Amino acid sequence: MQQEIYHDIPRIYTAIAECLACAIYYWLLPRRRRFPAFAAATAVFLFLDIFWLDLTGGVNTVFWFPCMFIAIGGMYVYLFFILKISAASCFYTLLKTFMIAEFMAAFEWQLEFFYGSSLAGKWTAFLLVAAVYAAVAATVILLEKGMTRDTGIYDLSAREIWPAALIVVSAFLMSNLSFVLRNTPFSGGMVTDIFTIRTLVDAIGLACLYGFQSHLYEQHAERELSQINAMLKAQYDHYRNYQETINLINIKYHDLKHQLAGLTAESDPQKRKEWLASMNSELESYRPQTQTGNQVLDGIIDQKLPLMRQNKIRFTCVTDGALLSFMHVTDICTIFGNALDNAIESVIVLPDPDKRIVHLSVSARKQFVCIEVDNYCDHPVKIVNGFPVTTKGDVRNHGFGVKSIAYTAEKYGGNVHFDVQDKNFELKVLIPR
């Protein structure tokens, strides 16, 4: 009876479900291969999966689990080949695809088994397979769309992945218990009971897995928001401290100007001339460097200039600071502070000083304020979901600068665009006036 029930579930159905579940994530996550390579890999994986599942369809129960794990290993290799994600992220994706495939095949087969007498021929059964698999795939895509905007949800630690693995393994064992052990309090006695248990347990397992992922997503969002708020406060505090220093310098600057007038009474013309030249030279080092038309922006740029001079970074600035008058001080600090910091970090490591170039512009374009920060970039930049991926090792705790720029722009109904063309990295912010 066990072998008969086991063979009643077509192996090709499981193979197609596993292939489709994996292929879904090619459209949701960063891709390692272009479409032709993806299509070829999908065809090869589907053929091998069908061959292996059909070959091992009649094995003894003792060998069934090892054969199943080999098939799961094939899914992992296929996912890692087509997706540009870490090994840990690939394992987490494997857990979901396997659970999706199990539910997809179980749900379709239960419907086909129940309505078997009403299905007229293979084409009707094929249409049922296509309809059920398409419906499950569409549901998965809708669920994932809200959780894959930020790839950080897939930068999971082992501590976060193991609970998901426990959910999947538990659901798989419970759903297939009746196929392996018939005499247990949790095994089904009739064919319909066995199929119902499998479908329901797989559905519950999938729901628990997505509930767990939703919890992870909320945790990541809270951590991200906390770090962005801390960054915003740091940028603003940095500006305020610098502005206080600038105010003291400006006071000193004007005091010295008055002292210069007193030096004109010096009787020795030569000493007076040398003294005046020395003080004027000293005053030049204290004179405010930037006049953009916006005091906040002036302070931010003046704060960055010493570092740029020290590292021989050529900085050009064409700005109409008056266009920023409607923006809050904190928001100006966030956008320009982070944008300039990122540009400086990018060019400061270049060995050739002639390539250390940063350009800032603020201009009016129709009904928008256009903020552009460009810098030379001689290395490839990966842009995922509209954001450049940080080159720093700890992805989980970096990359918040560009996100804080985007969130600030969104406060004013604006948007942010990142692009790399001809070895030039461009950040463009458009905000309605």
Describe it.
With 433 residues, the protein is an alpha+beta fold. It folds into two domains: 226 residues, no CATH class; 144 residues, 2-Layer Sandwich (Heat Shock Protein 90), CATH 3.30.565.10. The chain has 13 helices and seven strands. The strands form two sheets. A five-stranded mixed sheet has the order 1-2-3-7-6, with helices on one face. Strand 1, helix 12 and strand 2 form a beta-alpha-beta unit. Helix 7 packs antiparallel against helix 9, helix 9 crosses helix 13 and helix 12 runs antiparallel to helix 13. The N and C termini lie far apart (74 Å). The relative contact order is 0.07. The N terminus is likely disordered.
Summarize this entry quickly.
The chain has 433 residues and is α+β, with helices and mostly antiparallel strands. It folds into two domains: 2-227, no CATH class; 289-432, Histidine kinase-like ATPase, C-terminal domain (Heat Shock Protein 90, 2-Layer Sandwich). It is 64% helix and 10% strand.
Q: What is the approximate shape?
A: elongated
Indicate the percent of residues in helices: 55-70%
Total E-strand runs: 7
Spatial order of the strands in the main sheet?
1-2-3-7-6
Question: Main traits of this protein?
Answer:
2 domains; Heat Shock Protein 90; 5-stranded mixed sheet; 433 residues; 10% strand; alpha+beta; single chain; 64% helix; two-stranded antiparallel sheet; elongated
